[in-house]
Amino acid sequence: MTITHPYSAIAETSPRRVAIHTESEQITYRDWVRLVSQTANWLRSLPKMPNRVAILLPNSLAFLQLFAGAAAAGCIAIPIDIRWSAAECKDRLAIGNADLVVTSAFFKNKLIESKTPVVLLDHCMAAISEASAVSLPMIDPEHPFYMGFTSGSTGKPKAFTRSHRSWIESFACTETDFSISADDTVLIPGTLMSSHFLYGAVSTLFLGGTVCLLKKFSPAQTKEWLNRESISVLYTVPTMTDALTRIGAFPDCPVKIISSGADWPAEAKKKLADTWPQLKLYDFYGTSELSFVTYSSPEDSKRKPHSAGRPFHNVQIEIRNAAGERCQPGEIGKIFVKSPMRFSGYVNGSAPDESGWMTVDDMGCVDEEGFLYISGRENGMIVYGGLNIFPEEVERVLLSCPEVEKAAVVGIPDEYWGEIAAAVIHGNTNARKLKACCKQKLASYKIPKKWVFTDSLPETSSGKIARSIVKKWLKEGAV
């Protein structure tokens, strides 16, 4: 089975069900399966069938059509961010070794430095409209269909691939652990460059639900869709949720919130649940390499508000110390995961070993019930005079302080201590207030020694703070 396999069956049983609804168009499953088949057959009919197809387009029906069509054809789809510079596009296309890139005339100037062959969207769609809609041969489920790029918050991004099977196993989590089904109408307000939002759209189509897709995130427009359409599921990240909370965007009817991409402070989650008790809040921890790892249900969030949740139904977790031994509950170590959802490997790099266990060097512990608590990433750890400080732990405390909207904590060199923690804050507050807030919840050595205040903080496409840019700012004195 492949990620597009169910489309034909859905089209037969529910031909008039809306598959995708954008700001300007709607398409039924009957027409969706035809478009995907035509796109796949067009790709396979090219003089030299491309193995890797890059897509440089904003959120749109065309983006999803090309992505699904490439997957159905047996190609690897490579989303390219419209916000990247020409140099960044050239770099990603070279890393991905793309055979072809589809874009619109508006974005063609971003490809002037690249040697990858370009097909303009209008020409592409004209050719697809004349292609056959016959069904395609079966694809090996272990075949990769998607190439993404790690967020690069700690350094240069790396390309990775995912197989059909890995996402189909993830779809089972969406159905079983999040209870999302064909009956749901799912709002995707964020960029499809983020695997969180791309997955939300593709998994909904696999299950037979309706995808409502915004061209880009707008709090006001998201509010309008939530209150105008019968939205039952909203994919989001904490920064978006905060923006929606500030304008009172949520309707009176029940909506399931699926959040990931960054740490969601327990205080913010509780405030949202108290203000809109009809919302069902799901938060999950995962990575590009591991996919889903743990999730926190609405009930879990109330009982264990600072936990990253329990393992998904098909995931095993072990916490291991530096000697490779399994840690006891409450003991911090490196998080190892065994899962059928892990990635195929890095492009031109390592692949998972045969043991089935894998780590991305995140550190944490589990409690007696198996709930995971994340300390932070090992390679982001600040070593202050021999003492370990995890930036994520400090950021969680800072985000709980009044009037802090965003916070980033990074290590900067210090002649005496080796490294000190520096906090970069976006919010209407000051260092004195924040130090007092930190003293209530952190050991004294974990309290930042340098404080910088700014009007904005850089973010990755997945809504995480771009730490590498923050470090560069501090090094260059830009903040």
TrEMBL record:
<dbReference type="Pfam" id="PF13193">
    <property type="entry name" value="AMP-binding_C"/>
</dbReference>
<feature type="domain" description="AMP-dependent synthetase/ligase">
    <location>
        <begin position="11"/>
        <end position="346"/>
    </location>
</feature>
<dbReference type="InterPro" id="IPR042099">
    <property type="entry name" value="ANL_N_sf"/>
</dbReference>
<dbReference type="GO" id="GO:0006631">
    <property type="term" value="P:fatty acid metabolic process"/>
</dbReference>
<dbReference type="InterPro" id="IPR020845">
    <property type="entry name" value="AMP-binding_CS"/>
</dbReference>
<feature type="domain" description="AMP-binding enzyme C-terminal">
    <location>
        <begin position="393"/>
        <end position="464"/>
    </location>
</feature>
<dbReference type="InterPro" id="IPR045851">
    <property type="entry name" value="AMP-bd_C_sf"/>
</dbReference>
<dbReference type="GO" id="GO:0031956">
    <property type="term" value="F:medium-chain fatty acid-CoA ligase activity"/>
</dbReference>
<dbReference type="InterPro" id="IPR025110">
    <property type="entry name" value="AMP-bd_C"/>
</dbReference>
<dbReference type="Pfam" id="PF00501">
    <property type="entry name" value="AMP-binding"/>
</dbReference>
<comment type="similarity">
    <text>Belongs to the ATP-dependent AMP-binding enzyme family.</text>
</comment>
<protein>
    <submittedName>
        <fullName>AMP-binding protein</fullName>
    </submittedName>
</protein>
<dbReference type="InterPro" id="IPR000873">
    <property type="entry name" value="AMP-dep_synth/lig_dom"/>
</dbReference>
<keyword id="KW-0436">Ligase</keyword>
